[in-house]
Design goal:
The strands form five sheets. The chain has a seven-stranded antiparallel beta sheet, sandwiched between helices. Helix 4 (109-128) runs antiparallel to helix 8, helix 6 (167-183) packs antiparallel against helix 7 and helix 7 runs antiparallel to helix 8 (205-214). A hairpin with a 5-residue loop joins strand 7 (141-143) and strand 8 (149-151). It has helices spanning 43-46, 51-67, 98-103, 109-128, 156-161, 167-183, 189-203, 205-214, 227-240, 280-289, 296-331, and strands at residues 7-8, 11-19, 23-29, 35-41, 76-82, 85-90, 141-143, 149-151, 254-256, 265-267, 270-271, 339-345, 355-365, 370-378, 384-391, 397-406, 411-422, 426-435. The chain is built from eleven helices and 18 strands. The chain folds into three domains: 7-94 and 246-331, Phosphorylase Kinase, domain 1, CATH 3.30.200.20; 98-237, Transferase(Phosphotransferase), domain 1 (Orthogonal Bundle); 339-435, Immunoglobulin-like (Sandwich). By secondary structure, it is of the alpha+beta class. The model is unreliable at 239-250, 260-299 and 308-334 (pLDDT under 50). It comes from Nonomuraea typhae. InterPro entries: Kinase-like_dom_sf. The chain crosses the membrane at residues 310-330. Keywords: Membrane, Transmembrane, Transmembrane helix.
């Protein structure tokens, strides 16, 4: 395990690090005490012609996607330069990775299925936007405290290699991931994950997700759940959050690459007109740019005073930003609506003659206000039931019931499918037995 040093742009680094193809990730703590991450790019990689600009372009594309309400990515807070070093700073934790939990044998079959379904949905949203991940594997999947599967390093390897987004590589990587997770599962869960991998290769991620959702009875308890993943993460983070912060060092001049004049043009179709977030590094850059760089001992003392002033300003800005955020939340919706989860359940007992069957759909949102459009499909008829659900900023969970009247003499398995069509496309289904 490699060693990180001190802090960067107000982020306090710890010695909990890991090396990837891009450089070295370090767990970090933000000025307001939240868990986050910092990636120091390998100087031999980021120093190649055009790499910085392409990395910034990938980050700007992710921000645009996040503003549209697409979940599933660990958001980037800033990209900064400190001397010859280039750092990517995240707004949330980047550990543990799925690879960490797999190595500890802490991924149960229901959790493996949950990860695969969520990653498939995130990849579909990326591909629909003309983007791709480009480097999907257990090390680029982060498990959040609620057990959700999030992606890091989206588009960065493609940016370094100067290659086009290739959704088919993501699909192949997802199938490989499904097989790897299945290899540590008992039967019949292993067969289900292997079947989903084969389906992804032949028919795509949407069909593979349908296999997992439609055949969940192969999993222990017949459920797809991330409960154990969430517990494993909570157990780890309570132990790891304060691991050995590294003593401060002289960071030198900090320049945010998302604002600096040298990066006014980031690539085709992406310019400095893109909406940006005022970051700690941006404030440091603006203040530093107004002063001539002193020399000698006096210069070092001046830089030290300036760093202390900037740190105090950064902490104050965080407090002010928190107050503004709270005010915006109270005064009106500020978050674009996104559906974060969907689940459909049906009666487990066989239904008798002329039954009124209640199917329950549950959806979770990010707390944004707006309108969700969805449709119910019943396997015994062609017509779909189109409906809408208004959402508010004070509620994140909604129940969407379907009353299904079944009659006649027959024995059949019937399936109800709930599809959210807007603000993004998500799907789940449930099956029940009718006997008369």
């Amino acid at each position: 395990m490699s060693k990180a040093n001190g802090s960067i742009a107000g982020y306090r680094l710890t010695d909990h690090t890991r090396i990837t193809e891009l450089g070295t990730w370090a767990d970090a703590i933000t000025p307001d005490g939240r868990r986050a991450g910092a990636l120091r790019f390998d100087p031999g990689v980021v120093g190649l012609p055009g790499v910085r600009e392409r990395v910034v372009g990938a980050v700007v594309a992710d921000r645009r996607l996040a503003q549209g309400g697409s979940p599933g990515l660990v958001q980037v807070a800033d990209v900064v330069a400190a001397g010859a070093d280039v750092w990517l700073l995240t707004a949330a934790a980047i550990s543990p990775s799925l690879g960490d939990l797999m190595a500890a044998r802490a991924v149960d079959p229901p959790g493996a299925a949950a990860v695969l379904v969520e990653i498939a949905q995130t990849l579909q949203a990326l591909h629909a936007s003309g983007l791709a991940h480009g480097s999907l594997h257990p090390g680029t999947i982060v498990i959040a405290e609620d057990g959700a599967a999030l992606l890091i390093e989206r588009g960065l390897l493609d940016a370094v290699r100067d290659q086009e987004a290739a959704p088919e590589r993501d699909v192949s990587a997802w199938a490989t991931l499904a097989r790897s997770l299945g290899a540590s599962c008992p039967e019949p869960s292993a067969r289900l994950l292997d079947r989903a991998a084969a389906t992804a290769t032949l028919h795509g991620l949407a069909a593979a997700g349908d296999v997992l959702l439609g055949q969940r009875e192969a999993l222990p308890g017949g459920q797809i759940t991330r409960d154990r993943l969430a517990q494993e993460v909570r157990n780890r983070t309570t132990l790891e959050i304060g691991l050995n912060p590294i003593p401060d060092r002289d960071e030198g001049e900090i320049v945010t690459l998302l604002h600096a004049p040298a990066f006014e043009h980031f690539g085709p179709g992406v310019t400095a007109a893109e909406p940006q977030v005022d970051t700690t590094a941006a404030r440091m850059w603006r203040q530093g740019a107004q002063e001539a760089a002193p020399a000698g001992k006096a210069g070092r003392a001046a830089r030290a005073r300036r760093r202390r002033t900037m740190l105090a300003a950064a902490v104050f800005a965080v407090v002010v930003a928190g107050g503004l955020l709270a005010w915006f939340r109270l005064s009106g919706p500020s978050t674009p609506l996104a559906v974060t989860a969907i689940e459909v359940s049906a009666p487990k007992k066989a239904q008798g003659c002329d039954a009124d069957v209640l199917i329950t759909g549950k959806i979770s949102t990010n707390g944004g206000a707006g309108e969700i459009r969805y449709e119910w499909a019943q396997s015994d008829r062609k017509e779909k039931i189109l409906q809408t659900q208004r959402t508010t900023s004070d509620k994140t969970s909604y129940t969407l019931p379907l009353k299904w009247k079944v009659s006649g003499r027959s024995t059949a398995k019937l399936t109800a499918t709930l599809t959210v069509t807007s603000p993004q496309r998500l799907r789940d289904k449930a099956t029940f037995t009718y006997k008369c």
